[in-house]
């Protein structure tokens, strides 16, 4: 006769008491790994302890993470607790499961919810500073200073400041966030690349570059780009062939390009 035969025929997991849920853990733990009945007991134990996972995940709600996601993280922690529980150590399952699930939730916040990835050292430093701030605020009766936190944690003030700066990466604001009643979004207030500066710089450099051309080259360039004349029209005004205008224009533009590249390098 298997252990399952000795177990309660059916446990209503929606109303399972702590004693009943603990009994499932004990029954499962009594079976060796690989026993054909162990998997079924494991599933029933997980289901029986889901209210604990729900309760613990709710404690971390309203911190920027969806409740369903937190619940799933808590369930993962619960499963780890069930798989790792060793009753022979003399600790009841609830006493082992709670810190395991809470630890899983804290790791989720530490590893998954930072808007900008920062080194693990800074993530852990932020948590330590937050804990020190809460403790010192209570014991000192005021907000602790950087020096207070540094002394409490046994680190330098520069490290505290570094941790506080790193904490700024924990949250970010969407560029789609409305910032006015008319529907203006944050992204609309950000500046873009302004080509006007490059144009202004080019115009400043263009004067000296044109001065480097001889008189006829300057005239041809001016008629072509400021007067919008064709090469044939320029040839008529200057008194040379259109082919000659083309060669001179090409030569003048090469000189200008060389001068401008040097001016803006």
UniProtKB/TrEMBL annotation:
Q: Does the keyword Nucleotide-binding apply?
A: no
Q: What's in the keyword line of the UniProt record? A: DNA-binding, Sigma factor, Transcription, Transcription regulation
Its BP terms in the Gene Ontology are: DNA-templated transcription initiation
List where the protein spans the membrane: none
Alphabetical list of Pfam families matching this protein: Sigma70_r2, Sigma70_r3, Sigma70_r4
Cited InterPro entries: RNA_pol_sigma-70_dom, RNA_pol_sigma-B/F/G, RNA_pol_sigma70, RNA_pol_sigma70_r2, RNA_pol_sigma70_r3, RNA_pol_sigma70_r4, RNA_pol_sigma_r2, RNA_pol_sigma_r3/r4-like
Instruction: Give the residue range of the signal peptide.
Output: none
The record places domain RNA polymerase sigma-70 region at 46-114, 125-191, 209-257
Gene3D superfamilies the UniProt entry points to: 1.20.120.1810, Winged helix-like DNA-binding domain superfamily/Winged helix DNA-binding domain (1.10.10.10)
Q: Does the keyword Cytoplasm apply?
A: no
Q: Which GO terms describe its molecular function?
A: DNA binding; sigma factor activity
Q: What is this protein called?
A: Putative RNA polymerase sigma factor
Q: What's the source species for this entry?
A: Actinoplanes missouriensis (strain ATCC 14538 / DSM 43046 / CBS 188.64 / JCM 3121 / NBRC 102363 / NCIMB 12654 / NRRL B-3342 / UNCC 431)
> Lineage from the top down?
Bacteria, Bacillati, Actinomycetota, Actinomycetes, Micromonosporales
């Amino acid at each position: 006769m298997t252990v399952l035969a000795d177990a309660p025929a059916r446990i209503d997991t929606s109303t399972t008491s702590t004693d009943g849920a603990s009994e499932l853990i004990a029954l499962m733990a009594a079976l060796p790994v690989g026993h054909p009945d162990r998997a079924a007991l494991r599933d029933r134990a997980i289901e029986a302890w889901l209210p604990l996972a729900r309760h613990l995940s709710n404690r971390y709600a309203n911190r920027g993470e969806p409740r369903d996601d937190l619940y799933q993280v808590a369930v993962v922690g619960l499963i780890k607790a069930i798989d790792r529980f060793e009753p022979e150590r003399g600790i009841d399952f609830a006493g082992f499961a709670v810190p395991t699930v809470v630890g899983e939730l804290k790791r989720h916040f530490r590893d998954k919810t930072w808007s900008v990835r920062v080194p693990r050292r800074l993530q852990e430093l932020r948590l330590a500073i937050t804990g020190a701030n809460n403790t010192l605020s209570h014991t000192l009766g005021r907000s602790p200073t950087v020096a207070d936190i540094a002394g409490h944690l046994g680190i330098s003030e520069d490290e505290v400041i570094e941790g506080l700066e790193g904490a700024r990466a924990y949250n970010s604001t969407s560029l789609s966030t409305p910032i006015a009643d008319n529907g203006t979004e944050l992204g609309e207030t950000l500046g873009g690349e302004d080509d006007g500066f490059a144009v202004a710089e080019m115009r400043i450099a263009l004067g000296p570059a044109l001065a480097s051309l001889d008189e006829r080259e300057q005239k041809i360039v001016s008629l072509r780009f400021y007067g919008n004349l064709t090469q044939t029209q320029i040839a008529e005004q200057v008194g040379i062939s259109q082919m000659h205008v083309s060669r001179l224009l090409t030569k003048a533009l090469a000189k200008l390009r060389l001068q401008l590249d040097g001016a803006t390098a």
